Amino acid sequence: MKKTTFLVFILLSFSIPMINAKADDSNWLEGEIIKGIYSNIVEDDKYTLDLKEDAKVTFTLKDGVDLNLEDVYPNTYHILLMDSNGNRIASATTSLEDGDTEKTVKSINLKKGTYQISVSAGFISKGEYQVSYETSHIEGQDVEPNNEYANANSYKIGTTLEGTLYGTTSSNDIDIYKVEVPSFGKVKLIIQDTGIRKSDLKLVVTNENSEKVITVKNSNEPSEVDVLLQAGTYYFNIGLQAENTPDVNYLVSTQFVPLDENEWESGRNSNKITADVIQNNKTVRGFLYNAGYSYNQTTDYYKFTLENAEKVTFIANDREGFGALIFEDEEGQLHSGGYVTSNTSQIVETKELKAGTYYVSFRPRYGINGYEEYDLTLRIQRFTDVPAMHPYYEAIESLAQVGINKGYSDGSFHPKEPIQRQHVFAFISRIEGLNFPKIRNMKSFTDVSTSQPFYPEIKKFYEAGIISGYGNYMSPKSNVTRGELAKILVNTFNLKMNGNGIPFKDVKSSNIFYKEIQILASNGITVGANGNFMPNEPVTREQFSAFLQRILKKN
């Protein structure tokens, strides 16, 4: 049995004289061969097909000769398949292109129900027709009719879907599939025309409120795009971009990757009303779409509020020349510098803003066609000597946001200043929920008194057995070396070896801090520099912030 393409036939350009060939529609039984005369001067013959269950229906049309053209051309007649309301679903036309001069075969998956079959002639054709059908099990997920949400077929994310669009048999032919997305994540959509003669397809994703999420267009080559979807019900609407198109066989496949909602845009932030809130020192990832992919999600909006006047920096990364940032206050675009682009893959823009609510939107630059993943970071300068682009800004600011880094009274942080032992104890003691189990009583140190600012922190660390001092001295104001810090961090957080360490060139196994340094390295807390750890070098305040932030991220 062969399967040919459903061909198109709609007679719109001329009127046909109507002469009734049958008084009533006939109920057409499986295996029954219906015969008749077709001509462009007689009314179409009509039959009723009643399916008791979903089935693959295979029609067989007997090919013949066209009596009007003296056997020069094959006869051309059509069977038009309609639902019980007369809505067109598909058609089959006799054809010799399949290499079979005796018959034309066409299959279509149909849902149970009653259908109308109309047999009609080609443009000036005349002759005899002979048609039969048989049923078999459904093959594939494309079961007609499925052009409305109410009769949509189910589709499971991660599988491959094959189907057929029936061209101008129905000018509005659409295949609709209902899709359940289990959780927030990234869905890769791939659509392609699998036929020899390529046609322009489009896949429109809508949510259960019929709101368009994204449109993916295909022309010649397979098209693929990633889209962020919240958990819920969606519909894939697959159709043709143009009318008067022959039948098209398509293939759609998907891949799903669950994502952390705290790290990505919501996918619903297409305007100021639904803008995502962006937080200081946080990086959000997302996708930009432009022509050919989406009609309604070409801009991502983010919202932020300043309690005081602040120096604000936005850092945006995408492919070279793709994106542009638009800054707006609640009344509209900023009067100066509201539109920002870059000739590189990164946009960095700093603005001094008054207290208030603002929006920043990320959109493709004019003339860009395609889609691209991006990341966007908001940074507000807290310390006068730690600007937004400072290499340790993220670590210093993240600790400041939870009250660990407090800086100096003049608003500075002194990032390159060596950190004192007492400051290490103070910073770590501010970590919420960190326990210091007491294993011994505090002893007297020559250089430590109860009146000192950091005495409670020193006492806590000593009684927990994390530090022991140097005989009768604690040296609270001395600088901490990198080796000493390794021991303090390992003992404080009870770190253990986690895989392999790093064979630092300047840390021999005989080094007093060798074990602790290897534990830090095995946990990804340190990688050293140029193969060295520099255990005797003092730790700067910015370096300490980086060490501590990495540990807190892991715990």
Radius of gyration: 36 Å
The number of E-state strands comes to 28
Question: Helix/strand/pairing class, anyone?
Answer: mainly beta
Shape: elongated
Strand content range? 25-35%
Averaging pLDDT over every residue, what do you get? 87
Low-confidence stretches: 1-24
Oligomer class: single chain
| Main pleated sheet | 6 strands, mixed
Give helix % range.
Answer: 10-25%
Beginning-to-end CA distance, first to last residue: 64 Å
How many DSSP H or I helices?
A: 6
Give structural notes.
With 555 residues, this protein is mainly beta. The protein is 11% helix and 35% strand. The chain contains six helices and 28 strands. The strands form six sheets. Strands 19, 21, 23, 24, 25 and 27 form a six-stranded mixed β-sheet that branches. It has a five-stranded mixed β-sheet with strand order 1-3-8-5-6, with no helix packed on it. The protein has a five-stranded mixed β-sheet with strand order 10-12-17-14-15, with no helix packed on it. A hairpin with a 4-residue loop joins β14 and β15. α4 packs across α5. The radius of gyration is 36 Å and the shape is elongated. The chain starts with 25 loop residues before the first strand and ends with a helix. The N terminus is likely disordered.
